Prior knowledge:
Blueprint: E1 7-12, H1 16-27, E2 33-36, H2 45-48, H3 80-93, E3 100-101, E4 106-112, E5 117-122, E6 127-135, E7 157-160, E8 174-178, H4 184-194, E9 197-201, E10 208-209, H5 218-224, H6 227-250, H7 255-274, H8 277-283, E11 295-296, H9 300-304, E12 310-313, E13 317-320, E14 324-327, E15 332-334, E16 337-340, E17 356-358, H10 365-372, E18 388-390, H11 403-424, E19 428-431, H12 433-447, H13 478-487, E20 493-497, E21 500-501
Parallel strand pairs: 1-2, 1-6, 2-3, 4-17, 6-18, 7-16, 8-9, 8-16, 9-12, 10-11
Antiparallel strand pairs: 4-5, 5-6, 13-14, 14-15, 19-20, 20-21
The structure holds NADP nicotinamide-adenine-dinucleotide phosphate (NAP).
InterPro entries: FAD-bind_Monooxygenase_sf (IPR051209), FAD/NAD-bd_sf (IPR036188)
Organism: Nocardia acididurans
Protein name: NAD(P)/FAD-dependent oxidoreductase
Amino acid sequence: MSNKTDxxxxxxxxxxxxxxxxxxxxxxxIHDFALLEKHDGIGGTWYANxxxxxxxxxxxxxxxxxxxxxxxxxxxxxxxxxxQQYIERxxxxxxxxxxxxxxxxxEGARWDESTHLWRVTLGDGAELTARFVVGALGIxxxxxxxxxxxVESFAGKTVHxxxxxxxxxxxxxxxxxxxxxxxxxxxxxxxxxxxxxxxxFQRTPIWLAPxxxxxxxxxxxxxxxxxxxxKAIRGAIATxxxxxxxxxxxxxxxxxxxxxxxxKAGAAMYKLWLRDxxxxxxxxxxxxxxxxxxxxxxxxxxxxKQKDRVSxxxxxxxxxxxxxxxxxxxxxHEIDVLVCATGFRVCERGFAPVFTVHGxxxxxxxxxxxxxxxxxxxxxxAHGWPNLFLVGCGPNxxxxxxxxxxxxxxxxxxxRAIVEARKRGATKLDVxxxxxxxxxxxxxxxxxxxxWLTAPCAGSNTYYVNYQGELAIRPTTxxxxxxxxxxxxxxxxxxxxxxxxxxxxxxx
Length: 508
Ligand code: NAP
């Protein structure tokens, strides 16, 4: 069978993950690659999510690739469209546009052991071959509609935040929002400005802090583009987060005992902030701060104070009818528009990965993970799925920092492994079973008995914990991830050429 490939590397996804990987490959002198993107534009999550109020809750100076400053941002925490513009600038600066194939959905990938190639099937039935595949698929990728009976029967307008309809006129309508996560708390204040009446259905309240946001003037923007200033600020933020994380990690098993005090302190803060007993009772979580990704807003609480125009409903939703939302107290809340701010399928069976990936011996990765637990060596690779790297979307990869830190670390891992394979003349590299199992065990051991898996986080419905009851994130600092992804020992991979083992051809 032919050993000729369409591309040396196929990158699936042209969001931050795919773009960061492409830049790494370029820098390593690898130019035979393409990025496949299912949308008709680049940017991934920032291309898909364009609901009113969308912004990032990480400062631009840290929510940007380390190689390129985020200039022209209007605020400390830039709005979504400015992030999209930044992504477009990065792609042009690195000349990546000709490498991107838009409207190209990957349906599946199959490892061909006889040629040491991946065969990637596209939505139109075509097949591409590549020596290496990088899945930069995002984690907030597949919108989740609420699993509420009757959701299909609503006769008015239904919209999910990740597929916002900008042509629809929301003004003067009776709007309901289901969900009170990080997305909802950005959207709700904006909808309250235009709705005739806004009804928010909250199942689980969220911990949030005030957002120290401010307008950027050109001077601040110019200062941020001076490399030493930018690096110093990025370094300070990264170190600050990591120091906090070291504290949390060192006291992992003690946190469950401390958590109730944190919850009490948070509740006291909410009381002061809200100055409304009814609202603070409804809006205060019972789980501990930190169980879910914390959020920030200056407007969310204020919105609920407009009680004549905004209702906060905490009664359980029973079903959705043709006319609206019915709650357990028997009330049917009539509405014109149903907004589902109900999040995404994260690390769920059938959605991680989002297409079928048949590795060695034809085993499908999602099936394997379902049976054996969701793990990946350094959050990037899985034994039995050679020449495949996951960037920013693997199990045990997200560290509680900027996602771009994780993405750049994972992309550096893929680059290092591919470069080494080329150096050795290897056509196949597979993480060893021992290295894969050891990393999985390390993650499991470190999180056992932690706050996320014990009583303080009960009822938080956090996606930090997957449906199998294991922590889905990486229980280390970002610095540990940086080191692990850039300095993993080459003995953790088995390098093979089409004529046999080559792992001792060159010593790394
Ligand atoms: P999410 O955090 O998963 O929140 C979904 C919300 O919908 C929750 O309040 C959930 O309630 C509710 N919900 C889901 N199904 C429901 C049902 N059947 N009945 C009632 N309520 C239901 O999703 P998200 O708000 O879209 O945020 C996802 C992630 O996006 C965030 O964690 C964050 O990582 C990212 N994000 C980041 C930013 C940023 O500024 N960086 C902004 C927005 C989003 P339960 O909690 O009870 O499940």
